[in-house]
Amino acid sequence: MLEAECQTTKQGEKSTRRSQPRNSGQANFTMNQPSQGHANFTMNQPSQEGYQKQGELNKEEVEKIRGLLGSLEKPSGACSLALSEDLEHDAVHDDAKATEKDAALHLALSRLSNEFGRESTLSLQRFFGVRHVPVIPTGSLKLDIALGIGGLPKGRFVEIYGQEASGKSTLALHIIKEAQKLGGFCAYFDVENAMDPSLVESMGVDTENLLISRPDSAENLLSAVDTLTKCGSIDVIVVDSVAALLPQCEIDVPVGGILRDAQSRIMSQALCKIHYSLRNSQTLIVLVNQVRSSSKSRQGNKDMGEDTCGGNALKFYSAVRLKLGKRELLKNENEVTGLGISVQVVKNKLAPAMKKAELGLRFGRGFCCESEVLELACEQGIIVKEGNGYLVEGKFFGNRHEAELHLAENEVVFDKMVSILRRLLFETEESIVVHE
Predict the structure, then answer these.
(1) Has residue 83 got a pLDDT over 60?
(2) For residue 132, what are the contacts with CB-CB under 8 A and spacing of at least 6?
């Protein structure tokens, strides 16, 4: 009996302890019934007595909690890597190492200079200094503005291409005319045998001081161009045109003989050689080219059915590529007197490309430069426009035709206007510079 009562008493105490909440300094979590699919957790606050016993009785549990809290503060995985990279700093600049590298560089340059000569070695002052780009005007102020540097750069290749009768040869002759105005000496290779001296003189070109040649093969012509470029005395060389260049191997083969890409191979080899000659020369080489229908399609080319002659070498070596196209006919009453053309700067290594200029071309006279000068002078305030009339240096002209005729007949007034416009349009802006 006594043992049974003791056991009953112990079981009652255990059940009482289980029914009482624990209050040993730890938070008690109870889960209520979920509402709307979510479980609700509530935390019972421990009593003050429990806090006092925590340091004495539950040290291991306290350390576990501290470890858990520490792991929450430290990022893991990719986050920790990203934060560590953000905390990295650049290496401290070492003056001793920089001095050592500079000394090694100068030693290498001196060895190259002794072994290969001064012209083939690197020079920080020569190759990393900047210089102004010398240019030759095109004869059209609108085109010079589209080019961005006031003309075509000296010492470079320039390609002019387009459809037939679009003003390609006329533009080349205007470039020669402007170079002669600056006192330059020019050469014209008439490969197409289409040059009319009287027409060239009517455009203002001085044919007495112009070298004209008609070589009998592509090899002879390109060799002559290389020789004239090396001499350094020629300012402009015009080849009209690349499409008419005939290699000697094609001359020797009967009509109908199969020779593939002979012209392209010769152009690639010759341009590479002439390119090295241009480094020490200020000669502008203008190559007039034609277009052909092509089945090849190149990405980014809007005219998928057209391609230039002579292969792809000229496209790469050219610093400027100009594409000419016809717009509309210019008429005086019922008579056709000229042609409106558009010039697009397809490639430009010295300024932003893809600019356009719309020009007027008068048969037998060349570009309508007077019209451009009159329009630009009105925009700059040099010539005052009053209604339909124009006030030019104190003289009033009732309409546009009379004002243009005055500029065409008075070369001194025209050159003065062009000089003022070039100074306002190009010299006031920052000069284009390139790394030499």
Answers:
(1) no
(2) 431, 432, 433
Residue 75 lies in a domain: no
Beta carbons of 314 and 268 less than 8 angstroms apart: no
Return the pLDDT at 253: 87
Count of CA atoms in the C-beta half-sphere (13 A) of 183? 0
Question: Left (φ > 0), alpha (ψ -120 to 50) or beta: where does 305 sit?
Answer: alpha
8 Å CB contact between 151 and 175? no
Cα end-to-end span (Å), the chain: 117
Which of 352, 263, 274 has its CA nearest to residue 317? Answer: 274
Show the tokens assigned to 135: 């240019």
Q: Which two tokens stand for residue 270?
A: 């010759």
Does 301 share its domain with 397?
A: no
3-state secondary structure of 157: strand
Same domain, residue pair 162 and 282: yes
> In terms of domains, do 262 and 349 share one?
yes
Within 8 A by CB and 6+ apart from 28, the residues are: 21, 22, 43, 44, 46
Name the phi and psi angles at 232, rounded to 5: 80, 5
Which ranges in 87-217 belong to alpha helices (H)? 95-116, 124-127, 141-147, 168-181, 197-202
Residue 31 lies inside a defined structural domain of this protein: no
CATH code: domain of residue 258: 3.40.50.300
Burial class (CB in 10 A: 0-12, 13-18, 19+), 170: buried
Model pTM?
0.73
Going by the DSSP 8-state scheme, the letter that residue 256 receives in this structure is: T
Alpha-carbon span 17 to 426, nearest angstrom:
99
Same domain, residue pair 376 and 318: no
Query: The domain containing residue 410 runs over which residues?
Result: 368-430
Q: Is 52 among the domain residues?
A: no
pLDDT in tens, 158-181: 999 999 999 999 999 999 999 999
Q: Measure the CA–CA gap between 109 and 250, rounded to whole angstroms.
A: 47
CA distances from residue 276 to 229, 235, 273, 279, 420 in whole angstroms, order as listed: 10, 17, 6, 6, 37
Same domain membership, residue 288 and residue 237? yes
**Strand (E) or helix (H) holding 231:** helix 218-231
> Domain for residue 167, yes or no?
yes
Last residue within a domain, chosen from 306, 330, 363: 363
Please state the rounded mean pLDDT for residues 13-19: 48
- Indicate the number of domains in the chain: 2
